[in-house]
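Researcher: I'd like a candidate sequence for this fold, 249 residues long. If you have to choose between options at a position, lean toward the conservative one.
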């Protein structure tokens, strides 16, 4: 029997379950306006790497993944077992972007397959989502940083053309960034996640939501409740994108 939504939330450490208040047929709905997107400038060091980068901006999926597999643009390519481009629905509504592959991901060639991946799958399941079905999962860098450390700015800059092309090919309705490195890569800003949560950012007119990386949540269990709040916020934004007349509550 498939686990229930309550069981998924319990796995995330979220209990008691928060339920959305049902609106009475005789009670008018409370309507809130869409939060404005926060616009952030791109740092010059990142913009410099965005130029054509050897035709990446024109590649199809096959060419892009081959280019990623053969990439040696930074030192990460010298120590990996294999590149980890991403996995999921190539016409996804939801694009989930993490930081970089770990040891298990490097061995299997798929992002988020360890304990952090299990938690991510449970987080998605709590929203009635699953990888491969309207969801694509990628990372800011495509090769494992030594010791699973945080990717360095130069490494993210070298991989950024690949990530940009993935976004352009997928054309998601919403992007969810997991962790500071993903935020830095996509939005070009370096601030605490606490200061970025609950805000609607934008990447090329695509709404962007920021939350904690699942690996961080495994080490900081009380923060899981905050991550759940972020996912609910993302779901409301998705609803507003798909049905612009619907209220955000």
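Model: Candidate sequence:
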């Amino acid at each position: 029997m498939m686990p229930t939504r309550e069981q998924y939330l319990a796995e995330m450490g979220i209990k008691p379950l928060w339920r959305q208040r049902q609106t009475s047929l005789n009670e008018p709905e409370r309507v809130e306006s869409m939060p404005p997107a926060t616009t952030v400038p791109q740092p010059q060091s990142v913009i410099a790497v965005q130029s054509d980068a050897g035709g990446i901006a024109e590649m199809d999926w096959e060419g892009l993944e081959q280019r990623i597999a053969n990439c040696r643009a930074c030192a990460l390519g010298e120590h990996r077992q294999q590149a980890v481009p991403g996995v999921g629905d190539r016409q996804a509504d939801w694009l989930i972007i993490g930081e970089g592959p770990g040891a298990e991901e490097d061995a299997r060639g798929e992002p988020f397959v360890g304990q952090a991946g299990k938690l991510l799958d449970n987080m998605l399941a709590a929203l009635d989502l699953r990888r491969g079905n309207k969801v694509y999962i990628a990372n800011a860098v495509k090769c494992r940083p030594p010791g699973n450390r945080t990717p360095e700015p130069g490494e993210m800059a070298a991989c950024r053309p690949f990530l940009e092309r993935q976004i352009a090919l997928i054309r998601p309705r919403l992007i969810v960034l997991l962790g500071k490195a993903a935020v830095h890569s996509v939005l070009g800003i370096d601030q605490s996640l606490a200061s970025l949560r609950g805000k609607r950012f934008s990447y090329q007119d695509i709404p962007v939501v920021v939350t904690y990386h699942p690996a961080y949540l495994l080490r900081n269990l009380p923060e899981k409740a905050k991550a759940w709040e972020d996912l609910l916020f993302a779901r409301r934004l998705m609803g507003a994108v798909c049905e612009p007349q619907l209220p955000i509550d």
